[in-house]
Specification:
By secondary structure, the chain is mainly alpha-helical. The protein has helices spanning about 1-25, 35-65, 75-100, 110-140, 145-150, 155-180, 195-200, 210-240, 245-275, 285-295, 295-305, 310-320, and strands at about 25-30, 105, 190. The chain has twelve helices and three strands. The protein is globular.
């Protein structure tokens, strides 16, 4: 009899908790663990990665702005990629660190809306800038004599404006479609940020079809970008293989292959995360996959694009060792 009473009271207790979670205005991010020690460890690891990513990307932005030797279109696009990277990682990681340190996974409705908007906007803008950078490498390697005409300053600036504008449009479409659905289930998100697939699971009807339409539309555009990148690199590799100089081939491959790796890794992780079925219980695998496309790319991009470039390394040494960076009128001016 006592067991039945205890069982009934336990069930009623959980019903009250689920009712409160369902009726609350915000969402509950489950994060990585309920163990306090692991939460602190997660916060410290994320903090270290965040500070390193922030520092490396800020260094790239500074030196590509003030150093006259780094004013070619490639560095101009790299500067905006670094700006996108530090913004992209700032959307999710600081909130996750705060939730872990405070032992509180609550995120308000407004914060979740902003997180979805900036996350999707910056994710698309990053893919767009990588596409532009592939075209820049294509023009530089395949048409070196006409490169300055093809990639003149005005065209580069318009390309960057198009990148940021397309990102904003993508963010508006995703956000308006996602938050037009009715959340009638317990507002528990099994992620460390407001993940769209997890948010769709909270709908009790088919009103999430609008989001699927947006995803399909953006997926077609993303596939078009990927095809454009692949075609660019087919032309690049065919041109490089015909180069008589082994040093020239090595230099061209060293700048092209890392870029192709970044694009492939970024796209494959994002597509896998959106297309795989979402689980009803917390999964470490899901969390690790989300790290691969939210944290790893912004952390690796400065290393792949910056530290492997001799001109960038020399400018970094001047900056870090207190050397004088020459400040002359830049090729693209600072936008």
């Amino acid at each position: 009899m006592l067991l039945k009473v205890a069982s009934a009271s336990t069930i009623s207790f959980f019903k009250i908790i689920m009712t409160n979670i369902t009726s609350m205005s915000g969402f509950l991010l489950m994060g990585f663990s309920d163990v306090r020690e692991l939460q602190i460890l997660h916060a410290l690891l994320f903090l270290v990665v965040y500070l390193l990513t922030l520092t490396s990307n800020l260094i790239i932005i500074i030196i590509t702005t003030v150093d006259q030797n780094l004013q070619a279109p490639m560095y101009y696009f790299l500067k905006h990629l670094s700006l996108l990277d530090l913004s992209f990682i700032s959307v999710t990681v600081p909130q996750s660190i705060d939730n872990s340190l405070m032992n509180n996974g609550y995120i308000s409705y407004g914060q979740c809306v902003l997180q979805v908007f900036f996350f999707t906007a910056l994710a698309w803008a990053e893919l767009a800038i990588l596409t532009v950078m592939s075209y820049d490498r294509y023009a530089a390697i395949c048409f070196p004599l006409h490169y300055e005409v093809i990639m003149d300053p005005s065209k580069c600036q318009w390309a960057v404006r198009a990148v940021w504008l397309s990102g904003s449009i993508s963010g508006i479409l995703y956000t308006s479609a996602t938050f037009s659905i009715t959340f009638c289930k317990a507002k528990i998100v099994h992620q460390f940020f407001c993940d769209i697939p997890q948010l769709l699971k909270l709908s009790c009807s088919n009103d999430y079809l609008g989001v699927i339409g947006v995803v399909a539309f953006v997926a077609v555009l993303a596939f078009s970008c990927f095809i454009s990148i692949v075609l660019s690199y087919i032309h690049i590799f065919s041109t490089v293989l015909r180069m008589p100089s082994a040093e020239g081939r090595s230099k061209a491959f060293s700048t092209s292959l890392p870029h192709l790796f970044v694009v492939s890794f970024y796209l494959s992780m994002g597509i896998f995360a959106f297309l795989k079925p979402t689980s009803d219980s917390p999964s470490l695998f899901d969390l690790l996959i989300s790290i691969f496309y939210t944290v790893i790319p912004p952390s690796l991009n400065p290393i792949i694009y910056g530290l492997r470039n001799e001109a960038m390394k020399e400018a970094c040494r001047k900056l870090l060792l207190g050397g004088q960076l020459t400040k002359k009128k830049s090729y693209l001016f600072c936008c």
